[in-house]
Amino acid sequence: MFESLSERLDSAFKSLKGEGRITELNIAATVKEIRRALIDADVNYKIAKEFTDKVKDAVLGEKVITAISPGQLMTKIVKDELTELMGGNEVELNAKGNPAIILIAGLQGSGKTTFSGKLANYLKGKKGFSPMLVAADIYRPAAIDQLKVLGGQIGVDVYSEPENKDAVSIAQNAVKEAKTRNKNVLIIDTAGRLAVDEVMMTEVANVKNAVNPQEILFVVDSMTGQDAVNTAKAFNDRLNFSGVVLTKLDGDTRGGAALSIKYTVDKPIKFISSGEKMDTLDVFYPERMAQRILGMGDITTLVEKAQAQYDEVQAKKLEKKIRKNQFDFEDFKQQLDQIKKMGNLKDLMGMIPGVGKAIKDIEISDDAFKGIEAMINSMTPHERANPDSINLSRRTRIAKGSGKELADVNAFMKQFEQMKSMMKMMNKMPMGRMGGFGKK
Ligand code: GDP
């Protein structure tokens, strides 16, 4: 995410290395470099200029603290200012109501329908929410089907009236239906156009006036940079929306939209979406994003993602098996599945401080586990549960079944054994016990 911006800022700070203290003269080049980096990330000139003026004032206003180098001080101030630029504190979604109504607006292709599904999935996983999706795109029958498919995947009801060509009455009927079905959150996916269009705006505005939503979320494709910001302005002038959703942050986004939208429309970014899978939605935290941009990682999010996948019963079982040295391929596969559920692998690794920079040029695809999975899938249940039973002829069969070489299977088996003995060792150490592997 925002790799090129991260790199440019990093090299801007480097020019301060070796400087004993901050002076107006020695920060001039750094400040200029930061401004260029922002402009190249598609932040408009005015915002970039204002940003660097603030950074400069803040740096020069700092008392000289010898414990902190000028480079470190600059990094901290830029982090604070980036956080501020993106909204300061996070702003929670308001989903209180009976039902709470969340209206989704944006251009066609921005990711509205996908986001609607993700939001329903997110709310469904939170205590007390029972969402229903509403297909109010009256122009594209495919949009209704798309929402139905997503609803089916996540187990959420989808309300639609394929024959009705009036988005307002669909929305009104959906509100009544939500009450009958005891649904307390309604997510209304509206029609979009390829560009800002009067008819589309009027229609969404009419739905808004008819159902009085708690939230109007404007969805925008972050890959579109400055255009995203301009579109946001047009929608906000008309709808006075309550929050922004940035989509496609898994793509090659430069960062301009994330950095300038709050400034331009003065509405908070509430969610960021980074993939086509239903669980790739995150609440937007300005400070965490600033940290990620500056290569400081984002351990908080990483831990939260791990916690979300943590299954206490399963963890206890696993702990017991490790203690008895019975960890097998089936357990291994389950662990892989859990990691995969946490999200995009490269993104996850980038949340570890310092790692993002180190792996930026390395191709890490989510298929990284595919070979291993293929090998495990080619084992019989008996083999998975009894790794010791896998002799040469079985290995040869597994290699064939998974499209791998015998050497690959051998290497994997060896790694697995090494991992197992390491687990056993950790289990005996007091630290291991603290880490949750040991006896209680
Ligand atoms: P809508 O026209 O606004 O409803 O947009 P859709 O939800 O149909 O999304 C348009 C396309 O973008 C689809 O192919 C989606 O799968 C894809 N898409 C949506 N959100 C994301 C995202 O966060 N990341 C990626 N990579 N693709 C996305």
Automatic annotation (TrEMBL):
Protein name, per record: Signal recognition particle protein
UniProt-recorded Gene Ontology molecular function terms: 7S RNA binding; GTP binding; GTPase activity
HAMAP family, per the entry: SRP54
Record keywords, A-Z: Cytoplasm, GTP-binding, Hydrolase, Nucleotide-binding, Ribonucleoprotein, RNA-binding, Signal recognition particle
Catalytic activity: GTP + H2O = GDP + phosphate + H(+)
Record note on domains: Composed of three domains: the N-terminal N domain, which is responsible for interactions with the ribosome, the central G domain, which binds GTP, and the C-terminal M domain, which binds the RNA and the signal sequence of the RNC.
Domain of life: Bacteria
Organism listed in the record: Pinibacter aurantiacus
Assigned protein family: Belongs to the GTP-binding SRP family. SRP54 subfamily.
EC number: 3.6.5.4
Record-linked InterPro entries: AAA+_ATPase, Signal_recog_particl_SRP54_hlx, Signal_recog_particle_SRP54_M, SRP, SRP54, SRP54_GTPase_dom
Pfam families with a match to the protein in the record: SRP54, SRP54_N, SRP_SPB
Annotated binding of GTP, by residue: 106-113, 189-193, 247-250
Boundaries of every SRP54-type proteins GTP-binding domain copy: 268-281
Top EC category: hydrolase
Main location: cytoplasm
Role noted for this protein: Involved in targeting and insertion of nascent membrane proteins into the cytoplasmic membrane. Binds to the hydrophobic signal sequence of the ribosome-nascent chain (RNC) as it emerges from the ribosomes. The SRP-RNC complex is then targeted to the cytoplasmic membrane where it interacts with the SRP receptor FtsY.
Gene: ffh
